[in-house]
Amino acid sequence: VQLVESGGGLVQAGGSLRLSCAFSGTISSINAMAWYRRAPGKQRELVALISDDGNTNYAGSVKGRFTISRENVNNTMALQMNGLKPDDTAVYYCNARCNSLYYWGRGTQVTVSS
Length: 114
Hints:
By secondary structure, this protein is an all-beta fold. It has strands spanning 2-6, 9-12, 17-24, 32-38, 45-51, 56-58, 66-71, 76-81, 90-98, 101-104, 108-113.
């Protein structure tokens, strides 16, 4: 499974960004997909996850502001981020889970200025 993120950038606090993840390969083996992020000096954390049946889960810090979605027709996954805060500044990674295997994209930088 190959994953490529896009859509990061610099935005002011309160603004919005939409991240996209294009995936290819043995797509039928994907059980769930997720977005993670790693902020400077911090550990990588799960931001949002969408399972194969469409159920979603969010980190408490982003609930109500971020929305994860997946479009199997286009083989893409997205993260709509609204009400961005400086604490959301991080490298965001696309993740695909195939049973016990995790696949990762290279990440896209999101910077939120105050």
